[in-house]
């Protein structure tokens, strides 16, 4: 694992932990990130546990009458959310490779996840 990025204070961590369409949590976490950047906060967005399923491009959300969360997530850098991570242990558990994801996501170990959260002003878990 590489070193952690230098983070400005204050920053918030948003952990998204749910599969994309099981609840509204995936959309809620995205909206929280956008709201935080609108007031000038630095956001660290982390896909944890089942949340890594949101990273898969091959989502057939129209079959359940939903818009694709993947397309919305891939736009995060346009809204100044540039520190986007995926929990390495979850990627391994669910057999997801960074090659399966077509936007910039960095792997993060469980130890790094703890470090980033410990220094954050707020940690929001969805």
From TrEMBL:
| Similarity annotation | Belongs to the DsrF/TusC family.
Query: Which SUPFAM superfamilies does the protein's record reference?
Result: DsrEFH-like
From which residue to which does the signal peptide run?
none
**Which residues fall in a coiled-coil region?**
none
Q: Name one Pfam family in it.
A: DsrE
Q: Which InterPro entries match?
A: DsrEFH-like, Sulphur_relay_DsrE/F-like, Sulphur_relay_TusC/DsrF
In Swiss-Prot or TrEMBL terms, this protein is called tRNA 2-thiouridine synthesizing protein C
């Amino acid at each position: 694992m590489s070193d952690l990025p230098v983070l400005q204070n204050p920053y918030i961590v948003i952990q998204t932990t749910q599969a994309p369409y099981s609840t509204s949590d995936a959309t809620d976490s995205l909206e929280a990130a956008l709201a935080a950047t609108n007031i000038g906060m630095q956001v660290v967005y982390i896909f944890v546990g089942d949340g890594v399923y949101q990273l898969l491009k091959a989502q057939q959300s129209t079959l359940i009458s939903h818009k694709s969360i993947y397309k919305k997530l891939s736009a995060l850098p346009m809204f100044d959310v540039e520190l986007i991570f995926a929990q390495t242990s979850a990627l391994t558990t669910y057999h997801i490779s960074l090659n399966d994801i077509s936007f910039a996501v960095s792997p993060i170990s469980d130890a790094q996840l703890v470090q980033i959260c410990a220094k954050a002003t707020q940690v929001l878990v969805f």
